[in-house]
Amino acid sequence: MGRERLNDITMRIFSTGWSEDVDGPGRRWVVYLKGCNFRCRWCANPEGIDPAPEMLFYPARSGYADTACPHGAVKDNALDRARCAACPDRPCVGVAKDPAFELAGRELGVDELVARALAARPLLRQGGVTFAGGEPTLQADEVLAAAAALRDRQIHTAIETNAGTPGFARFPGQVDLIIADVKCVSPDRHREFTGADNSLVADNLAAAAARQRDLLVRVTLVTPFNDAPAELARLAGLLGRLRKQRDRLRAQVLRQHHLGGPKYAALGIEYPMKDAPCPPPSRARELEGLLAEAGLDVEPPWSAKT
Ligand code: SF4
Predict the structure, then answer these.
(1) Contact of 287 with 239, CB cutoff 8 Å
(2) Which domains does the chain have, with CATH numbers?
(3) pLDDT for 165-198, tens place per residue?
(4) Within 6 Å (CB) of ligand 1, which residues are found?
(5) Which residue of 87, 106, 230, 296 could cross-link 251, Cys pair, CB 3.0 to 4.6 Å?
């Protein structure tokens, strides 16, 4: 794809940042795509779910939040979200730059993305660019165009995906690494805790197993969603069958955390799992053992490697 064409392509993002742990090997520049087809109740990036821009409001960060909004949307340290959503110019962010306000949601041109990645190349240290979210495969045209341009320039690319969209099938072979988050096998349970059907996931994973050279499946254990012994066995069964389709299959097991909790309050929404206990490390070891028995190459997150 020519450079002129890249000028015309923009993606919806809610943030960019740096990572050296769960987003791929080496030092990564992570582009967080806005919009997701799942509604996971433990989501650590709730501002990535809705495709539309949203304001995160942290009144404790500033003594001047009321005056930073000239449109009267802030009174007594509370944000009138209906008025804020209709804001014509968002001067709280663009002019006042008041720390109480964080706008999640903007367009990023693929041309700009590639230029920023090239400028950052000296910082990438055996890393690359990761497309996370949100769900990056919902913006398949845009992400694939960016990934192709980056690979042309010898920059390593990865996506982190729920593997549950029709667009996923376009990615195997088109990025250097696919990190597929597998939530749970039981359809009812999946629907209850993510608000979405998982019927596409198994087929998508099978397609990736056949066509993607570097594939890593990842399970984040969440209590009481997917950490019961029966569910661990089902996960190991699904991933073990996938392993038989290829020479090797990498796997990581993570545990739920509550680091995203303050964002729910900042968005003015309830955090559905705020009181849920995090699974103990022993539960993660248990699943790792089952996956190793099923023939997968179980590895720690990149930050934990020596
Ligand atoms: S986005 Fe507009 S309406 Fe909302 S707080 Fe900022 S200035 Fe006020």
Answers:
(1) no
(2) 3-50+105-304 (3.20.20.70), 58-103 (no CATH)
(3) 999 999 999 999 999 999 999 999 999 999 999 9
(4) 55, 69, 71, 73-74, 83-84, 87, 90-92, 101
(5) 296
